[in-house]
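[agent] plan:
  1. take the single chain provided in the ticket
  2. run structure prediction with default settings
  3. attach structure tokens to the ticket
  4. add a short note for the reviewer (M.T.)
[agent] executing step 1
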Amino acid sequence: MKKSISGMAGLLLVTAGINVQAADLSVKGSIAPSSCSFTITSSVIDYGRLDPNTFSPTNYTKLAKKSSPYAIRCGAAAKAKIGIKVVDNRASSRIPGLMVSQFGTGYRDNYNYGLGTTSKGQKIGGYVIHMRNNVGDGKAAYVITNEGYGGTWDPRSTEALGHSTNLSSWRSGAAFTPGQFNTVTGNLEVQAIINKASELEMNTQINLDGHATLELRYL
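[agent] step 2 finished; step 3 output follows
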């Protein structure tokens, strides 16, 4: 009799298992900023052929300012808080203190980009980058700079674009914090400085070789 009861209980359990239905549930999604594009109309700043006789043997020589339009465009449905981080790919060729000597104390070496070296390892010079005529969503936008990712934005902007730990962004109102935009446009202005002619072997061709990477960052 006990065996019969045990057998029936086992049968009931098996039957209950057969009748259970199951379905899987997945929870997905993404947390991501608005998708933005960053373009520079002409990403090559070309000074062409320069006459070596025009350079001073004892002083640095400023070349002309050259510029190219830039544009950052984000999705029309959502504004984004954005910034620019720059990497100097010719950092080893910088001349320390070059920009301070040319533009003043505000232009420390984190605003000084290298122009490469000659075939004999001589440092050719450097250049600065400024963001000019900036417009955010149809209104004037003002460059602000964070020099160490510390969360403090410096209102005393020269519009210079720095590298290393520098991060640059734009504000549109009175607050010195990055604004949110659908579109930011302006001009990237470059000015090169050539080393003293006495530091360079001028009887051979010297090719300016500045190279920097501008990265769009979401803040």
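[agent] step 4 note for reviewer: Residues 1-16 have pLDDT under 50 and may be disordered.
[agent] ticket updated
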